[in-house]
Amino acid sequence: MLAGLGALTAFAVAQREGAGLEARFAARADNKAAMDRFREAASKHQDVESLLKDRRTLQVVLEAFQLEGEIDKRGILRKILTEDPAADGSLANRLSDRRWRELASAFATRQPIALTTTQIAAMTTTQVASLTAKQVAGLTTEQVRALSSTQVASLSTTQLRALGSAAISVLDLPDVRALGSTQVAALRASQVAALTPLQVAVIDPGEARQWGAAQIRALSSTQIATMGTSQIAALSTGQLAAMSGDQARALTDRQRAALGTAQVASLGRASRAADAAVEAAAAADAKAAAPFAADPALLGRIVAGAITNRYEKAMGEDNAGLREALYFVRNAAKVTTVVGLMEDKAMTAVVRGALGLPESFGLLSFDQQKTMLTQRLDITKLQDTKEVAKMAQRYIALTTTPSGGGNAAVASLFADGGGADAIASLATRRISFTA
């Protein structure tokens, strides 16, 4: 793209008209077809293993995080996509490259919230309602205990279904009573099974009547035995028929006495329809755990990220250094420390180029590189869009000019091969980004 203009001119055009250029690139027939195919294929994957076997779909996922070159590292990818990135020992936290952490966070099924129980309790219902399903899933049992009945009642069915079994089991009895009929009906079968007998006993009879065959079948004998006679009497013949033989036998004499003739006759007559409902519920739970299920917007973000990566690649095909410069401009604000910069090889390469340092800079130890970058670079300038653009321009100029942009002072230091001593001597020199 923008062939014949020269990298610096192309960079200026991209800075001025980048959004329009990328939009036209995304609308190209080949790119549109590729992303449509990705959306369709990705939504069918029920687990990470199936995604890892679909190389074409996995390629797009990794492109969104500039990790397409790692596609053959299946063992690493499996851990990144399945481990909890919030865990101290997770692989994502052990790898220095932030792109792996971004990938892990995108596919995480839960996102911890760094709020105390006091702060959780102080949240308004509007704030609670604004939590994503991943954030709700990331609530600890202590945070869930801190929720008031009013806050629990404000949870959407999607949020409620995101709660884990342990979180469901610690809801206070008033919290359970506060659940509406729509919320009770939306409980996953595994959540119903996690309810304590006392929690089951306080559910309104009319709300318990909303449960399907899978939810009824999920009840344990102990849960059923502690249900009130009004709850049992409110169950439909279809619900009673869905009970297994063990569940029917768990009913007490008082509970049976509360049933009508038709209800008694239907007890424990588990039908194929009930069995199918249980299987369907299990399949729904499995689908909820699918790679793209936790965050409905993830597909869109991956498509946008992959298109941006492809656009930057296309821009770099005809203009040396332009891809790296565009990537640098797009991600510079994410970097707040020198170590954070060094975690991203592409970002470090642009800064190294802008400083006029040779590729042999990479031969230095980590501490030597860190010291030199700390001395030579004002890291706060990465938060200034104008300064970032200057760095990118200088990188392009020094990358595309064999003489290093006429910087004789820098060139002379590396005339004899640029050994570690020569590189280290740069720590005492300054290079102007405005030169």
Profile the largest sheet.
Answer: none
Domains, number: 4
Assign the CATH superfamily of the largest domain. AGR C 984p-like
DSSP, total strands: 0
The CATH top-level class label of the largest domain: Mainly Alpha
Which class best fits the helix and strand makeup?
Answer: mainly alpha
At CATH level 3, the topology of the largest domain is: AGR_C_984p-like
- Specify the overall morphology: elongated
Question: What is the name of the CATH architecture of the largest domain?
Answer: Orthogonal Bundle
Q: What's the end-to-end separation, in Å?
A: 28 Å
What's the helix and strand layout?
Blueprint: H1 7-27, H2 29-42, H3 48-53, H4 55-63, H5 74-82, H6 91-94, H7 98-107, H8 117-121, H9 125-129, H10 133-137, H11 141-146, H12 149-153, H13 157-162, H14 165-169, H15 173-178, H16 181-186, H17 189-194, H18 197-201, H19 205-208, H20 213-218, H21 221-225, H22 229-234, H23 237-242, H24 245-250, H25 253-257, H26 261-266, H27 272-288, H28 298-317, H29 322-331, H30 338-342, H31 345-355, H32 366-376, H33 385-400, H34 408-413, H35 420-424
Helix pairs in contact: 1-28, 2-28, 4-28, 28-29, 29-31, 29-33, 31-33
